Amino acid sequence: MTGPLFTINFRRASWEQSRAEARRRVVRLGVGVAYAGVVGILLGLFGLNCALMSSRTTALERRVQRLRVARAAAPELRLDPADVTLVQRAAANPRLWRDKLARLAELLPPNARLTSLAVNPDRAAAPAEQLRLVISGTIRTGPERDRVQPVVRLVESLRRDAVFAAGFQNLKLISSRVPDAEGAAVVEFVVECR
Hints:
The protein has six helices and four strands. The protein has helices spanning 12-73, 81-92, 94-107, 127-130, 149-160, 162-165; strands spanning 112-119, 133-140, 171-177, 186-193. Strands 1-2-4-3 form a four-stranded antiparallel sheet, covered by helices on one side. The chain is rod-shaped.
């Protein structure tokens, strides 16, 4: 005896329905898990942002408190109006002084040394006097008879230089002095530029 050649499954429709229902449940479960994952990631990012903002706010509050303490401890700065005007004028054209000082460094002979530079040393209030520059220094001289000649040559080179002399109407040697030491080969000089 042999078995049937084919069989008819009368439950196939219910089996297909159960498979379709299982697919729908899996899809619903996947969508639910994906939704929960996205919501979890968004909530995590929101929490990180909140923690970062909280730490930044705390740091800013500490900084503001330090500034308040520093401002309370610092004395109040009171400037003379003439000083404010001088600073404003110098700040308006910083290139003017930079170029002049760079050119002065180039014009100084190798045996010269500056001891001081002073802008408006008398703190004059008149605008014409505020551009006054006083240069003090020393020059080592050789065995020549006239030791003041190197200083005179320096002043002449300053007068002739277009970059350095710009803005000054008068460049002159105010004083020159040879120290009293025997055999001293140094001349001290003061040059005034107005």
